[in-house]
Design brief:
With about 500 residues, this protein is mainly alpha-helical. The chain has 18 helices and no strands.
Length: about 500
């Protein structure tokens, strides 16, 4: 009976969010409406959409696990996020609003030409598929555990297919409006779930448990010891590396930039961007507190002694086995909300970049408005199918999925952010310099990621973005110095917007 009620709650949530998404989306009249919500969405809704987009299941299930085995180190990382997003708000965002773009990479097309724009878009498409594949798999973990409790052994791929199908139902029709408003609702659900878990755990942990967690360093935010280059939670790595990482993820990744471009003005976009850093800091603190309280409740028991395979299973196991009937189903729905929030954002952004950066700028395809809107919707569905295929690649991963997901994305952020900074800082740089620097950066990052270790450990994922930016600026700057100054062709210097209005 307990599991049947939980399953009923989850099914009811899936149906409700699809219906709500369709109701809130309104009527889409053009591709611009579909991609940017008519640039009419309130900043606070966009702020929560940014949070939902970057949070996903990785945060919900992995951050408590990281705190269980460590400390509040993710809050430290959020300090770097606040610095980086403030820089994005005042340095990069004016470029996008001034140009009237629907894709971040249209700026690269304007500055360096269609070849660099197309390369940046392809890089985004590939890395986003890989990263979202990890996130989709992470969302299937608690669902599989729940079904196992109910006596059902369901394959991960089946679970992923169901999650994707429901998400596509409202994203396909409603576009950005449906994405932002459902993100807003889903953020509230999983944050409320964290608060409920904290309340439940607080009644189960006495004063001695809190003291033991404090003495064990579970509530420590800053880590001033440990190797800087290989520990992603060391102070300098978290603050400096985290700032540059978030500049790459929130300033050069279409997934986030597209949310900001749906705001009514640059001022509103800045509020959404900086506000998202503060919100994510609170969110990291909440989920870290869940992990610390779980550690205190379990008396510091190891993962293996609890009969679990990794720290990623600690929080889902608590939800399914320890919470009252119905409430655990609602908490699993919250985890689903995080998965669906990031997935819907990814599908919409992949569709946008494909049409704006590859279809229009690269191939010169300029269809009628109605055709563009229909193709945008079909492209959303096509990317959903491809996303499921990529998600199946990660069903055997043994690493904490939050680290794996961030690492995959960080490999490309250096080249993307570096290209934007090259355009801003090196006036002599042209398309050849930018394209060559971009390719060089991707190759160098790949070599470092796969073949370089420090004392037997890989470079911490925030430093990959720093490395990429440095390589791009150095290579692009040197090429710009030896090449004669050339003005971009008119067609490349001033691309048209993606729609015909």
């Amino acid at each position: 009976m307990h599991d049947a009620v939980n399953l009923a709650v989850i099914v009811a949530y899936l149906v409700a969010i699809a219906v709500i998404g369709l109701k809130l989306s309104g009527r889409q009249r053009s591709a611009t409406d579909y991609f940017t919500g008519e640039r009419s969405l309130p900043w606070w809704a966009v702020m929560f959409s940014i949070v939902a987009t970057e949070t996903s299941t990785l945060t919900v299930i992995s951050v408590p696990g990281v705190a269980y085995g460590g400390s509040f180190s993710y809050v430290e990382l959020a300090v770097g996020y606040l610095i980086g997003r403030t820089l994005v708000a005042f340095v990069l965002m004016p470029l996008y609003f001034r140009g009237g773009f629907v894709s971040a990479y249209e700026y690269l097309g304007q500055r360096f030409g269609r070849h660099t724009q197309g390369l940046a878009s392809l890089t985004f498409l590939v890395t986003r598929l890989l990263a979202e594949g990890v996130r989709l798999f992470a969302g299937a973990i608690p669902i599989k555990l729940l079904l196992a409790e109910f006596g059902l052994d369901v394959n991960y791929l089946v679970i992923v297919l169901v999650i994707t199908a429901v998400t596509v139902a409202y994203t396909y029709v409603g576009g950005m409006k449906a994405v932002v408003w459902t993100d807003f609702l889903q953020t509230g659900l999983y944050v409320a779930g964290a608060v409920v878990c904290i309340a439940v755990l607080a009644t189960q942990v006495d004063g001695a448990g809190w003291a033991a967690a404090w003495d064990a360093g579970k509530f420590a935010v800053f880590q001033f010891d440990g190797p800087v280059l290989t520990n992603p939670y060391a102070f300098l790595t978290a603050v400096i590396g985290g700032a540059v990482l978030t500049m790459g993820s929130h300033g050069s990744d279409q997934l986030i930039v597209q949310r900001v471009l749906s705001c009514r003005s640059l001022s509103d976009g800045r509020k959404a961007m900086i506000g998202s850093a503060l919100a994510i800091m609170v969110q990291f603190a909440l989920f870290s507190l869940v992990g610390a309280l779980l550690w205190a409740r379990n008396g510091g028991a190891t993962v293996s002694s609890l009969g679990l395979g990794s720290t990623d299973e600690i929080f889902p196991a608590f939800i399914l086995r320890e919470l009252p009937m119905g409430l655990s189903g609602l908490l699993v729905a919250g985890i689903l909300a995080a998965t669906m929030g990031s997935l819907s954002s990814a599908l919409n952004s992949l569709s946008t970049s494909t049409l704006a950066d590859l279809g229009r700028a690269w191939l010169g395809w300029h269809p009628a408005e109605g055709t563009m809107l229909r193709v945008a919707r079909w492209m959303t569905g096509a990317w959903a199918v491809i996303m499921v295929a990529f998600a199946s690649l990660f069903t055997s991963s043994k690493d904490p999925v939050v680290v794996l997901g961030l690492a995959i994305a960080s490999y490309a952020y250096g080249a993307l952010l570096g290209a934007f900074l090259l355009g801003l800082l090196v006036r002599r740089a042209d398309g050849v310099a930018a394209f060559t620097a971009f390719v060089t950066t991707l190759l160098v990052t790949l070599v470092v990621a796969l073949g370089v270790s420090i004392d037997g450990k890989a470079l911490a994922f925030p430093w990959f973005v720093v490395l990429g930016v440095v390589v791009t600026l150095v290579v692009g700057g040197l090429i710009a110095l030896v090449r004669p100054r050339r003005e971009p062709a008119p067609a490349e210097a001033d691309p048209e917007p993606v729609t015909t209005g």
